[in-house]
Amino acid sequence: MTAAATDGAASLAIGLRSTRWGWRPVETVSVVAVSPWAAFRWSTQPARHHLTTLPRPAQFDSDSSARPSDGLVGLHRSARAGEGNEFAGIRRFRAGDRMRRINWPRSVRTRELQVNSTWADLDIHVALLIDATDDFGVSEGIDGLASSLDGAVRAAGAIAEFYAPRGDRVSLRTFGSTRTHLVRPGTGRAQLRRILETLARMTPEYSARTVSRGPIGRQIGRLDAEMVVMLSPLIAPEALDLAVDLGRQGMMVIIVDTLPDHVVQDDEDQYVGLAWRIRLLERRRELRMVMGAGIPVVEWRGPGSLDPVIRDISRRASGPRMVPR
C-alpha cells in the first residue's frame, strides 16, 4: 500500500479484522519512504503489538429462577419471608416490625395491629466451570465451524451477559489445564468485561489429563454457589467425576455438552474414525450414569437452553434431600 505526502506528511490506513477470539500478536510491517525520483530512501519497522479479541457471546435468555441464596439483593424471590417488594400476606404485628408495614384498614377491622409480609428478594451465584483440557473440532472463527472450546467460551459469555447485569453474582474458573483462570464472584457490566477478557486468554492444554477435584470443590463450596454450570466436551472422564463430586456436596450442577457435531468426519482415517466411535459409545454410557446420579446434561441451543433443567432442579431442591454422612 502506498500514499503520497502532502505538506511533508502522509497517512496510510491498514485494515485489520480478527475472526476468532483470543490474545495474539500483530505482525510488524515495513514502512518505507522515498523522495521523488527515489533520490533518498528511509525505512523503519515499528514494534510488535498484541491484539485482544473478546469472544462474541451467543444468545441466551432464561425465564426460570434458580435456588435462592442467603443474600438480600437480586431479582429472585425467596422461599422464606423477609424484606422485599413482593406481597406475601397479612399477619399479626410482632416486635421488630417496621411501622410502614402496618396495614391500617385491617388493623381497624380486627382491632389488632396487622402488618403486610413480603417475600425476600435474593440474588444467586452462578459459577461457570470451563473444561480447558483439550479442544475438539475445527475452529474457523465467527464465519465458520466452531470447536468445543469455541462453543464453551461463547456459551459462558452468554450466561455471564444474562446474569451479571441483573445483579446476580457470576464467577469463572477453568480446570484441566496447568494454568487456572479464575474470576471471583461479582456483578455488573465491569464483571462481565472481566469474564470476557479472561475467556479471551484461555488456551487448551493438550498435555494435561488430570483434574484436581478437591481444591475446585472446596473453592466452589466456600463461594456458596447456587448454580454451577460446567461447560465441557465430556471426552475426559475426569470432568464427569468432578460434576458428580460437586453434586454430592449439595450444589445445583448443570453440564452443558459442547462437543461439536463435525468431530467425526467421513473422510478421516478408518482407524481414527473407529477409535472415535468407540469413545463416543463409552461417553454415552458415562452420560447415562451421570444423569442417573441426578446431574442433568444438556446441549447448548441458545435462548431457553437451561430453562427446563433449572425449573426441574429448583423444584427438586425445595423438597427433602438425602445427604451422605
In CATH, the topology of the largest domain is named: Rossmann fold
Helix content estimate: 25-40%
Indicate the overall shape: flat
CATH architecture of the largest domain: 3-Layer(aba) Sandwich
Major sheet: order of its strands?
Answer: 9-8-7-10-11-12
- The N- to C-terminal Cα distance equals 72 Å
Explain this structure to me?
With 325 residues, this protein is α/β, with parallel strands linked by helices. It has two domains: 83-121, no CATH class; 125-317, 3-Layer(aba) Sandwich (Rossmann fold), CATH 3.40.50. It has helices spanning 104-110, 148-163, 188-200, 213-223, 237-248, 270-292, 307-317; strands at 22-26, 31-34, 41-44, 49-53, 76-92, 114-122, 125-131, 169-175, 182-186, 227-232, 252-257, 297-299. Strands 9-8-7-10-11-12 form a six-stranded mixed sheet, sandwiched between helices. Strand 10 (227-232), helix 5 (237-248) and strand 11 (252-257) form a beta-alpha-beta unit. It is flat.
Provide keyphrases for this structure.
325 residues; alpha/beta; Rossmann fold; 2 domains; 6-stranded mixed sheet; two-stranded antiparallel ribbon
Architecture blueprint of SSEs:
Layout lengths: L21 E5 L4 E4 L6 E4 L4 E5 L22 E17 L11 H7 L3 E9 L2 E7 L16 H16 L5 E7 L6 E5 L1 H13 L12 H11 L3 E6 L4 H12 L3 E6 L12 H23 L4 E3 L7 H11 L8
Parallel strand pairs: 7-8, 7-10, 10-11, 11-12
Antiparallel strand pairs: 1-4, 2-3, 5-6, 8-9
Helix pairs in contact: 2-3, 5-6
